[in-house]
Design brief:
One of its GO terms (molecular function) is metal ion binding. The protein has 19 helices and 28 strands. The protein is α+β, with helices and mostly antiparallel strands.
Length: 593
Amino acid sequence: MSSYEDRLKALRAQLVRQKLDGFVVPLTDEHMSEYVGAYAQRLAWLTGFQGSAGSAVVLPEEAAIFVDGRYTLQVREQVDGAHWQFESVPQTSIAAWLQEHAGQGARIGYDPWLHTRAWVRQATQALSEKGAILVAVDTNPVDAIWPDRPAPSAAKLVVHDDRFAGRSAAEKRADIADWLTAKKADAAILSALDSIAWTFNVRGKDVDRTPVALAYAIVHADATADLYVAPEKTDEAVIKHLGNAVRVHDRAAFADALADLSGKSVVADPERAVAAIFEALEEGGATVLPLRDPAVLPKAIKNDVEIAGHKAAQARDGAALSRFLHWMAVEAPKGRLDELAAADRLEAFRRDTGLLEDLSFDTISGAGPNGAVVHYRVEEKTNRPIEPGSLYLVDSGGQYRDGTTDVTRTIAIGTPTAEMKHRFTLVLKGHIALARAVFPKGTRGGQLDVLARQYLWAEGLDYAHGTGHGVGSFLGVHEGPQRIATFGGGDEALVAGMILSNEPGYYKTGEYGIRIENLVLVEDRDVPAAERPMLGFETLTFAPVDRALVEIEALSGEERGWLDAYHARVLAVVGPQLDGEALDWLRAACAPL
């Protein structure tokens, strides 16, 4: 198993043993998570792909890997094109590819604990047109050939105190119980890890960069609950926190426990609960109500305590990032830094706060052409020097008990070219347009996406990722259901209290990348003479935008006013946390245009 080619050969041999003609390998876990523990990194182990979203299909003579526009460059750098076809989504899909490539009468395997029911139905329909069938496996063939597969994390759960959560777990369960009663349901299955963490006010360390624990839960209409988690992960403090209304069981007992819901009406989320959960409920005699997990929307709408905590985390994090940007301004022009050194120094500044629990994702530290790889992950073999005359893109964030941060800055190392400045300014104009947006209640994120792209579009340019994603409260740096995107989501109405990113970009393959990202809070907006209730955004992130990249004459008066006001706010929030040369640098970086 020393090479990815060997692993692909071994998987094909295993498929023969399991009487299968193909197998689908998604990058997820039993909870439909975006970020997964090491034990569930099957796609990376099989192919070498290190991105956070993708899937693969292996047939006897062909294999394909499917990624979206964020990973177009990365997948070609990390996966051997001699053995894998590269497919782009949403332009194609696994179902469509199988319909074209699977053999007549083929048996295509899938793990029912790693796919939604909708996906199973779509793939089944596509294969039926070829006379092929989709086969649920009891043993995942990748696991069968993965000799040193890591065990799931044994890390302890920790209590997330009410002073950070803003509401007790008992209150949250009571709200879910009221919702179940209104839906005439007896129970709801919670399988999404962040929903469980939020509902029970617990956190964990089972997934790198995301403070969640591997668990399942069933919340009942009487406000009691059953929590399924490995016994070694709880202690006296957690049991006391959960209270008598929460019955704790071994995680391994969850699948069998679904049969105990026979005769009851049970809510299961079609997007977040895997096909195996639906099948077990139906086979056990439950009536399944395919409704959204009742924790999803309340989790996304932050309460006053969570908002205050987030602002405190942002102020702290902004100071750490500003210290880093000052350090870069001093050290980078010397030409002795590289991507790894910069990422390490930024993490050190965050750790110096004394309150950092973890990074919120692996820092994207991209110099020159690596900055054009949207979700670039620096490693020793890709590590580039940060050279004068280039652009450096750094997308990073921290996990603090009181909030989760995510911020991107693009900085010029030395003197930027006229093209770099112009395209940076187009991105900045889009960022400002979205930040200044005022819109009626009920507006969906997808309706706002064009605001950030309009100036790039006017010059025939674009970017292949969404403009904004939701962010959790000491939870996932990517959180639904809210998004600002025209594809892959964006249909959720924005509600006051939601936190999203504002991150337009531009990427010139082989040369440089540009992205400007702040987090924003959806807030009620008082508009004189408005005939409908209105909303807008409050910018939460505080760190200077590189003035050396701003084409001032291309900004309107309103845009210059916004940037000057933003920088004044950065100085007011971050300035008191700095001193000496760092404070002098910040004052210059935040001076009016």
